């Protein structure tokens, strides 16, 4: 089976799958292979019944519903590949549905909470200037942390105030930023970045001049949130979720927000709509003349 898995990984590389996606698929298929060995099953004679057994075995590991769904999707994609490239005469999982679960709604920070985190950065040296620009950029644009860290200096267009961002599946999009962000970026590039980058193109270098890692960026977010007592409220996508929610509250339409966030489907973007529905209802009840009469 390992040879076929290697072929599958090569197929994913050809499809421009990201490094993180490849690692996740590799991990998921290792669990699948372990299951097959334990049950003495042959992957070439796999059925929906065995697939259900596999999903049950994942639940026994106390994995989150989201993780179980991802692993299930990996196995389905694997069998689709096996059939597509004639390793199997048919796809035994073609008609099988993925397990469903209710995705938790993203939690956004209030405007005051965001400002308190951004103001917690005291720009006393080059690294703290980098931290300031990173946090401000995440909130100003709503890009993913991974997208911010993959930016190079040439991806920043100060005159026209936009970033050229490479998102999931290496899909490029243009993301605008406001004038205050442009000023911060200009100051950063002219001063702190020149020292930190050591001639390398990365927009956000680490202390040694290499590209700042996701772990390093997450520590930065967590550190400044903890300074203002908000570490319990932050998560890896906190600024992205907050950006989306605040944009909708400000009147941004779903299609535009979809483009800004780089979502393939507007359905993904619609999840943010649910986050601030209570606020919409409050505005409605305070504004509509007949609604006010109910009180």
Descriptive overview:
This protein is globular. Helix content is 59%, strand content 4%. The longest helix is centred in the N-terminal third of the chain and has 21 residues, at 19-39. The protein has 15 helices and three strands. With 295 residues, the protein is mainly alpha-helical. The chain has two domains: 2-84, Tyrosine recombinase, N-terminal domain (DNA polymerase, domain 1); 111-281, Orthogonal Bundle (hpI Integrase, Chain A). A three-stranded antiparallel sheet has the order 1-2-3.
Fraction in beta strands: under 5%
Q: What's the alpha carbon Rg, rounded to whole Å? A: 23 Å
Number of strands: 3
Query: Biggest sheet, in brief?
Result: 3 strands, antiparallel
Helix content: 55-70%
Q: Which class of secondary structure composition applies to the elements? A: mainly alpha
**CATH domain class of the largest domain:** Mainly Alpha
First-to-last CA distance = 67 Å
């Amino acid at each position: 089976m390992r040879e076929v898995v290697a072929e599958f990984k090569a197929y994913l590389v050809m499809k421009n799958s990201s490094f993180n996606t490849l690692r996740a698929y590799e991990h998921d298929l290792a669990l699948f292979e372990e299951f097959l060995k334990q049950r003495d099953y042959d992957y070439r004679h796999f059925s929906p019944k065995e697939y259900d057994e596999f999903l049950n075995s994942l639940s026994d590991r106390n994995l989150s519903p989201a993780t179980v769904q991802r692993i299930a999707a990996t196995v389905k994609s694997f069998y689709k590949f096996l059939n597509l490239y004639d390793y199997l005469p048919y796809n035994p999982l073609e008609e099988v549905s993925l397990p469903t679960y209710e995705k938790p709604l993203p939690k956004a920070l209030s405007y005051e909470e965001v400002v308190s985190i951004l103001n917690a950065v005291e720009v006393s040296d080059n690294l703290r200037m980098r931290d300031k620009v990173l946090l401000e950029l995440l909130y100003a644009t709503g890009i993913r942390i991974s997208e911010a860290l993959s930016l190079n200096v040439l991806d920043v267009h100060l005159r026209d105030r936009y970033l050229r961002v490479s998102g999931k599946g290496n899909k490029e999009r243009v993301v605008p930023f406001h004038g205050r962000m442009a000023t911060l970026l200009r100051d950063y590039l002219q001063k702190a970045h020149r020292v930190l980058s050591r001639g390398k193109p990365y927009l956000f270098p680490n202390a040694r001049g290499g590209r700042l890692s996701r772990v390093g960026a997450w520590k930065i977010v967590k550190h400044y949130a903890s300074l203002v007592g908000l570490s319990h409220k932050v998560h890896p996508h906190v600024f992205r979720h907050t950006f989306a929610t605040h944009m909708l509250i400000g009147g941004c339409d779903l299609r535009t927000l979809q483009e800004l966030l780089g979502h393939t489907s507007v359905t993904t973007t619609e999840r943010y709509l649910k986050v601030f529905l209570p606020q919409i209802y409050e505005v409605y009840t305070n504004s509509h003349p007949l609604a006010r009469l109910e009180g």
